[in-house]
Amino acid sequence: MAKRYAIILAAGQGTRMKSKLYKVLHPVLGRPMVQHVLDQVKAVNLDEVVTVVGHGAELVKDQLGRESQFALQAEQLGTGHAVIQAEQLLKDKDGTTIVVCGDTPLITDQTYLDLFEHHEKQNSKATILTAIAPDPTGYGRIIRNENNQVERIVEHKDANEKELRVQEINTGTYCFDNKALFEALQEVSNDNSQGEYYLTDVIEILKNKSEKVSAYVTPDFEETLGVNDRVALAKAEKTMKKRINEQHMRNGVTIIDPDNTYIHPEVVIEQDVVIHPGSILRGETTVKADAEVGPHTELTNCIVGESTVIKQSVATNSKIGDRVNIGPYAHIRPEANIGNGAKIGNFVEIKKSTLGEGSKVSHLSYIGDAQVGSNVNVGCGTITVNYDGKNKYLTTIEDDAFIGCNSNLIAPVTIGKGSYVAAGSTISKDVPGESLSIARARQTNKEGYAARIKNRKKD
Ligand code: UD1
Ligand code: CA
Question: Most CB contacts within 10 A, which of 147, 288, 348, 456?
């Protein structure tokens, strides 16, 4: 098979985004656009990838890492000029080069494969990926001759009235014979309304040399959306969300309101999971079979076990076991490890803590830097006092312990196995196993005293 190369154009500032963040780094479902582009295009088995960077070069390089080589375009003089920057790395190579824009995050691996196949079958020097746009405003138009062959591409800003009516648009994606591409680029000028070196001019240049140029019309215009501003960014988010949600539904996940459910690309969801409205699942999250998430729940990099239920809660970088019940209104902060069958109720915050099997923290508690054993009951309002303003300390609660309501456990401290802490205690010393610890002021009752209070005179 002929060698395959890709050039990703990602040097522009993205003026129309009106943003500090460089355009191709704007996320769509949590993933920078340029990363989506690379993820999809690499499915065609590329021998080399070159990303052209300029604005935000270091950030784009950090994002793509080793998956790409980089060429620097110091000044953004147009898409043709951008491709020329990859010359040193690629120009002497034989094979096919796909050029893609870093701002078309919705094009799928299948479309890239279809484009390659079409290009190779036709034996063309250039194949443009085109689409029919209901509203082609802003896109380059495909100009065909009377035999319906592609002649050239005209940019929106350079088009005359007749050309503006053409609905077939340039998606900004092309396959080229690699050597023919770099030769033709030598001839591109900046004699146009934007004073830029357009990559699109290569088509006419090849055509004038009587080289074969073709177009592959993809049936799905939606997929080829180029994101130039935040209105398009929101459209991209919507389309990708729909695509991902439908994939999960086809795999056996119930999504009650797909328009209102945001599942990022790397999330894994097993069968018979139910996702309620307003839920956001991010990063490397896995939700195992029969679990129920939401409504209004945010999970980021979490593992959620089988048959677990999480309502109206936020969980980050944590592992949650099977048959756990969380929420409503719980906050599971990083490095929580919640055992099977545990219960975490309303207004409970858990941070960097382990909770053993079957343990319960049902109401209004803070558990931070704690090792909690199994079958522990943590009463309402219990606080692990883990921080003295400088350092954090560990609280250990051994199996079967019972912590009475409104207790403060001043770390470092250990509550032994099977022990009881009386409600309202402030525990600052270890409690041995199988004991009862009471650490609160004794109660005094003054009988009849109420009348004295009630009869006090006003000053
Ligand atoms: C481009 C095409 C247009 C097509 C549209 C599809 C040209 C001249 N026009 O227009 O025909 O319909 O895409 O979405 O190619 N970039 C650089 N360096 C530069 C300029 C741009 O790296 O000097 C990068 C940008 O970061 C971006 C991509 O190239 O990722 C496309 O540039 P953009 O300015 O968005 O081109 P469009 O005006 O959308
Ligand atoms: Ca664009």
Answer: 348
Judge whether 351 lies within some domain.
yes
Residue 211 domain-assigned (yes or no): yes
pTM of the model: 0.92
Residues with catalytic roles: 363
* Domain carrying residue 279: 246-437
Q: Which among 79, 98, 128, 157 is the best mutation to test ligand 1's pocket, defined by most ligand atoms within 8 Å of the CB?
A: 79
Identity of residue 188: V
> Would 231 be classed as within a structural domain?
no
Compute the distance from residue 389 Cα to the ligand 2 centre, in Å. Answer: 51
Query: What DSSP state is assigned to residue 442?
Result: P
Any idea what DSSP says for residue 307?
A: T
pLDDT digits (tens, 9 = 90+) for 112-168: 999 999 999 999 999 999 999 999 999 999 999 999 999 999 999 999 999 999 999
- Report whether 234 belongs to an annotated binding site: no
Residues above pLDDT 90, as percent of the chain: 98
Label residue 425 left, alpha or beta by phi (over 0 means left) and psi (-120 to 50 means alpha): beta
Q: Is 155 in the pocket of ligand 1 (CB under 6 A)?
A: yes
Nearest ligand 1 atom to alpha carbon 54: 22
Residue 301: partners with Cβ closer than 8 Å, 6 or more residues away: 282, 283, 284, 285, 316, 317, 318
CA atoms within 13 A on the CB side of 332: 35
Kindly state if the Cβ of 78 falls inside 6 Å of ligand 1. Answer: yes
Number of domains in the chain: 2
* Whether the CB of 292 sits within 6 Å of ligand 1: no
Please report, for the domain that includes residue 364, its CATH number.
2.160.10.10
Return d(Cα 102, Cα 241) in angstroms, integer: 19
User: Which tens digit of pLDDT belongs to each residue from 446-456?
Assistant: 999 999 999 99
pLDDT tens sequence across 287-341: 999 999 999 999 999 999 999 999 999 999 999 999 999 999 999 999 999 999 9
Ligand 2 center–CA 176 separation, angstroms: 20
Is 33 a pocket residue for ligand 1 (Cβ < 6 Å)?
no
